[in-house]
Structure formats: C-alpha cells, structure tokens
C-alpha cells in the first residue's frame, strides 16, 4: 500500500529516558510503515536543553505557533540530584511550563477508558476530564532564597512610574524563601471560554474550583471572570443542552469527585490541575492511560503524555533487562497530533489512520495483552502481562490488519 502523505509538518519534541525509547519505537514500528512522516524535530532532552541554555525549548514553542500542531515526549525537569546525574551546568525551568507560557491556553486531560479496565475509585463510571489553565501561576513564578535578615516587599508601578500598590510581605529575621506569582485577565478569560466550549462540545457538566476564601483577590478574580463569561455567553446554551456550570471550593470539589460517578469537566488553575490530573489518571487506572492536549486561543495544539520519563524502567533498560512500560499515553499523543494535523489540512486519510492506531491499542488491551501496570485493574483471568517489546508487537500486528 502507498504510505499516507502529510502536507504540513507536526512539530516533534523528543524527550528523555524510557519515554524517549518508546518514542523511537512508536515512530519506527507504528508510524513509519504507514505514513510519510513530516515533522520539524526538536531534541528537548535534558542535556540538549542544558547545552542550548533552554533556547531549543523556546524555539520549539514558537515552531508550534507557526505550524499549529505539536507532539511532545515526556522530559526531565532537573532537580539538584538530576543535575549531578546528567552533569548539567544549570537548573532550567520546566520545559512544559516554558512551552505553555509561550502558547498560553488550556490543557485538557482525559483518561483512556476501557470496558474491561476497572477504575481504582469504584464509584467512577464515566471519564473525568481535567481542564488545566496552562499559564503562569507558580510555573512562571519568581523565587528567591533569603540568606539574611531583611524585608520582602510587593510593589506595582504603572507605565508612568507611579507606585499604585506597596505592601510588606515579610520581615525576615533570618534565612527563608520567597515566591511571587502572577496571572492576566486576558489569559483567564481565554481559559474560561475554552472550558465552556469544551463542555458544550462534549455535552458534559463543567465544574470550576479554586480557594477564593483564602486568595480573595487572586482566586476571586478567576471565579468572577468565569461567572461573568458564563452569564453573558454560555448560560442559555448550557441550559438548552441540559448541562450545568458549577463552582465550589477546591477542597469540596476533591471530596465530591471521589464520591461522584464522573462524566464531567473539572476546570482548575495551573498547579491545581497539575496535581489533580495525576490523581484522576491514577484513579482511573494508570498515569500512562491519560491523554493530554494544550489548546491555545490562537488555534495551536500541543499533544503530550501526562506522565513522566519512567526512570526506573530506563535504568533497567540500560542494563539490558526486560521492561513492561505502558506506552498508551505517548501513542495517543501521536494519534491526537496526527488527527488534528489531518483536520487542519483536510487530510481524511491521516485522520482515519489516527483512529485505527487508537483502535489497535484499545483492542490489544481488551484482548488481554497488557503491560504490568494494568493487570490488577483488569477483569481477573482475562489478561497476561507482556514486555514493552511484546506489547508493541501486538499493537503493530493489529494495526496492520486494520490498514
């Protein structure tokens, strides 16, 4: 058969450790046999970012703005231990935070739900989609380690240089830490519109939660903007579709989530969404069974796996030992990017291939061939755990049959 052609490129952002190994396997075994893959490649491994002083991360983000579709492998955000391990000259910020700060937008994370895969949280029957504001907060915050006695102050000056706000944050009697965060109403508004539109498109209720009882101005602004936009632009549409918008404090939302059956979109600020998406993905089965896409108000899309680089498996891989690493989220990042590229280019063949790739993955698991992380959550007696290589081989065989 002729390979499927791609008119425009996808921005490909390679990553680290075991997910980098999986990335290569996906391209070689699942994509290259069927597609004339057209990508603009960026190596976002921790050493590559260190060598370029993080310029390659910035370049990759602007490439997504240019080509509108990107797919990203999991990457290391180094701490002092990782800095020593990889002999890095500096501790750079999270590449995800850098990319999201440039693209702005909202990250939608939804679990891959299978009939035979039973959630750890027994009440959950339907998917819970976490909508994460992918801009600012602590991910673009400013931090400082205080070494001596002194005063920390917060000020704001307008363009004329006039000081409109000044407050002492803390009188330090000795060493401590200091952090500032920010956000912009334009980005919050884009976040709100994206959440309301996504809920309408999927016909699901929308929850939004912050801690505005404590952060009365910061979180209170988020809540007020959401409410205003809902009242002005979406209330009638929600009512016509039989869905609701619901606000509650984040601690109440967490408690409600664990007692719910799912089936809604849960909108959260940047850090809250980072934490809660991992909780939701684990509750549904595995971090490796969570799809993730950033949608920007400019019409740019970045697909990625919602998990990390799986270092424990990578260390075994380096020793030549067999691993059983679940590649589902990374495969679905590729299928999502290919489908969106096909939609934007009017390439139905590419869209169809993305669907067949996902179907091959799902049918492989439902047939009982799974990685070790899924065994305990599948119907007893219906599964057998296989290695990473064996799992890829099973998917590849099914995909070839579907093509």
Describe this protein's structure.
With 403 residues, this protein is an alpha/beta fold. It has helices at residues 17-31, 46-51, 55-67, 80-85, 95-103, 185-202, 218-240, 250-259, 270-284, 311-318, 328-345, 348-366, 388-402, and strands at residues 4-5, 10-14, 35-36, 39-43, 69-72, 106-111, 128-133, 142-146, 150-157, 163-172, 176-180, 205-210, 245-249, 264-268, 290-295, 301-305, 369-370, 384-385. A ten-stranded mixed β-sheet has the order 4-2-5-16-15-6-7-14-12-13, sandwiched between helices. The chain is globular. The N and C termini lie close together (9 Å). The model has no long low-confidence stretch (mean pLDDT 95).
Specify Rg, calculated over alpha carbons: 22 Å
Structural class: alpha/beta
Beta-strand portion reads 15-25%
Q: Give the beta-strand count.
A: 18
Strand order of the largest sheet: 4-2-5-16-15-6-7-14-12-13
The proportion of residues forming helix, as a percent range, comes to 40-55%
Overall pLDDT confidence: 95
Task: Compute the number of helices.
Answer: 13
Please state the overall shape, judged from the principal axes of the Cα atoms.
globular
N-end to C-end Cα span: 9 Å
Largest sheet: 10 strands, mixed
Can you tell me the residue ranges where pLDDT is under 50 for at least 5 consecutive residues? Answer: none
């Amino acid at each position: 058969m002729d390979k499927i052609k791609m008119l425009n490129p996808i921005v490909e952002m390679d990553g680290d450790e075991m997910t980098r190994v999986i990335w290569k396997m996906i391209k070689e075994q699942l994509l290259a046999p069927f597609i004339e893959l057209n990508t603009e490649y960026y190596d976002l491994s921790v050493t590559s970012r260190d060598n370029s002083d993080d310029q390659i991360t910035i370049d990759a983000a602007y490439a997504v703005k240019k080509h509108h579709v990107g797919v990203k492998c999991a990457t290391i955000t180094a701490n002092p231990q990782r800095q020593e391990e990889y002999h890095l000259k500096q501790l750079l910020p999270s590449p995800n935070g850098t990319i999201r700060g440039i693209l702005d937008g909202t990250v939608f994370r939804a679990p891959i739900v299978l009939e035979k895969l039973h959630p750890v949280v027994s009440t959950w029957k339907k998917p819970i989609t976490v909508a994460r504001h992918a801009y600012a907060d602590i991910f673009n915050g400013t931090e400082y380690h205080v070494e001596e006695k002194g005063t920390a102050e917060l000020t704001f000056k307008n363009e004329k240089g006039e000081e409109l706000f000044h407050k002492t944050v803390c009188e330090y009697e000795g060493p401590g830490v200091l952090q500032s965060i920010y956000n912009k109403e334009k980005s919050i508004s884009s976040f709100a519109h994206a959440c309301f539109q996504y809920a309408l498109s999927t016909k699901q209720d929308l929850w939004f939660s912050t801690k505005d009882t404590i952060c009365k101005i910061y979180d209170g602004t988020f809540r007020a903007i959401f409410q205003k936009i809902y009242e002005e632009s979406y209330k009638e549409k929600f009512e016509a579709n039989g869905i609701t918008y619901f606000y509650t404090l984040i601690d109440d939302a967490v408690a409600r989530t664990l007692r719910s059956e799912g089936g809604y979109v849960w909108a959260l600020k940047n850090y809250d969404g980072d934490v809660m998406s991992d909780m939701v993905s684990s509750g549904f089965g595995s971090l490796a069974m969570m799809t993730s896409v950033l949608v920007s108000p400019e019409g740019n899309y970045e697909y990625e796996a919602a998990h990390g680089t799986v270092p424990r498996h990578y260390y075994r891989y380096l020793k030549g030992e067999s691993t059983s690493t679940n590649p589902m989220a990374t495969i679905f990042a590729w299928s999502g990017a290919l489908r969106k590229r096909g939609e934007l280019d009017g390439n139905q063949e590419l869209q169809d291939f993305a669907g067949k790739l996902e179907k091959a993955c799902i049918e492989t698991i439902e047939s009982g061939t799974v990685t070790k992380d899924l065994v305990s959550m599948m119907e007893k007696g219906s599964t057998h755990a296989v290695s990473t290589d064996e799992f890829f081989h099973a998917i590849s065989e099914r995909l070839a049959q579907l093509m």
